[in-house]
From TrEMBL:
GO terms for biological process: regulation of autophagy. One of its GO terms (cellular component) is cytoplasm. SUPFAM superfamilies: Protein kinase-like (PK-like) (SSF56112). Gene3D superfamilies: Transferase(Phosphotransferase) domain 1 (1.10.510.10). The lineage of its organism: unclassified sequences, metagenomes, ecological metagenomes. One of its GO terms (molecular function) is protein serine/threonine kinase activity. This is Unannotated protein. It holds the Pfam family Pkinase. Residues 14-286 form the Protein kinase domain. PANTHER family: SERINE/THREONINE-PROTEIN KINASE UNC-51-RELATED, SERINE_THREONINE-PROTEIN KINASE ATG1C.
């Protein structure tokens, strides 16, 4: 049974618009604040908790509110509400209509995401994560993956925001380590060792894995389908250079990825700030000494995350785009931008046609 329902009013402030998704511990809804507009509300599933237990559950919201960065999802409010399961904690945060990086990636179908777009999004993710890594002691996310990076259009262009700090943890100030947690396919070798260590360098591995996925439509290592924390004999093979799969990747970018994905934690970038510096130093362009075929298409469908890529629903996307344009005509630019971003994931061709319109609508400019 869902914790909330469409049309429900919460604390005389929020109207529930629709269900967005759920994880193991919480459900997420799009809500409309009576004064501040659309937000996303994360409601924890466990009901009937005591106030101290709720405060502990809301630790993620407290942590996010203290970090504060344009590339980390912003928290607005935290409180409790009555649900069919009893009293549950919730917090509200930015609503990002474009959804996750996973959706953005999949919306490109058989085409690679443009190289400089992938680099820009990963640089933004590093900027946000580096703020957490600079805390004393450092805060590690422990579950960086495309599903936990949100992507949406702003006036300046695409903006990435790291979300879901539910597994985030301050490391031991002496060892700079914490117990491993998160999604196994994005975890480094040390997470599967007897010590099961997690660190800033482990977050870097996850960023490197995500970047490799964006560039190649593949995960860097061939991992078993039943991968779990007890899996052994992993990461034995050498990864295929991204430049051998995507002709736009040059040797400098190959080296940055290789360092992020070094199986030896001490040889990796030690935190997101170091990886950001490397990405800032990267320049696009083919290597002068190498010849690469000119293709922008992936050889495989986007199945690397274990979910079959379904063809974009172009008809639905076109209908949503028409609705967005109608809203724009009556001056509802924020609503128009929200719907158009959702349409991009249904019909990828709309992105090239209307991305600049959305940027202007976000500025309050109608065209």
């Amino acid at each position: 049974m869902a914790l909330l329902h469409e049309g429900q009013t919460i604390r005389e402030t929020f109207e529930v618009e629709r269900f967005l998704g759920e994880g193991a511990f919480a459900e997420v809804y799009r809500v409309k604040h009576r004064f501040l507009g659309r937000q996303a509300m994360k409601v924890f599933k466990r009901g009937g908790m005591t106030v101290p237990e709720i405060e502990e559950m809301l630790g993620e919201a407290i942590m996010l509110s203290r970090i504060g960065h344009p590339n980390i999802v912003r928290v607005f409010d935290a409180n409790v509400l009555d649900t069919p399961k009893g009293l549950c904690g919730y917090y509200t945060m930015e609503n990002v209509p474009g959804g996750s990086l996973e959706k953005f990636w999949k919306s490109h179908g058989t085409k690679f995401i443009p190289l400089e777009t992938s680099i820009d999004l990963m640089k933004q993710a590093c900027r946000g994560l580096s703020v957490a890594h600079r805390q004393s002691p450092p805060i590690i996310h422990r579950d960086i993956k495309p599903q936990n990076i949100l992507v949406g259009y702003e006036a300046e262009g695409l903006r990435a925001r790291i979300s879901d700090f539910g597994l985030a943890k301050k490391v031991n100030p002496l060892t700079l380590l914490a117990t491993a947690a998160g999604t196994p396919a994005f975890k480094p070798p040390e997470a599967f060792s007897n010590t099961k260590g997690d660190s800033c360098a482990a977050d870097v591995w996850a960023i490197g894995t995500t970047l490799y996925l964006l560039l190649t439509d593949q995960l860097p290592f061939d991992l078993p389908s039943d991968l779990g924390w007890g899996s052994k004999n992993l990461f034995k093979g050498k990864i295929t250079s991204a430049s051998n799969i995507n002709p736009d990747v040059n040797s400098l970018l190959d080296r940055i990825i290789a360092k992020a994905l070094d199986v030896r934690a001490e040889k990796r970038f030690q935190n997101a700030g170091e990886m950001l510096d490397a990405l800032d130093s990267w320049k696009p362009g083919l290597d002068k000494t190498s010849y690469k075929a000119n293709t922008s298409h992936s050889e495989i469908a986007k199945t690397a995350l274990g979910i079959e890529h379904s063809s974009p629903n172009e008809d639905e996307g076109e209908k949503m785009a028409f609705k967005a344009i109608e809203l724009k005509k009556v001056g509802k630019l924020a609503d128009a931008a929200d719907i158009m971003e959702e349409a991009f994931n249904k019909c990828p061709d709309l992105r090239d046609k209307y991305a600049n319109h959305v940027k202007l609508w976000r500025c309050g400019i109608s065209m």
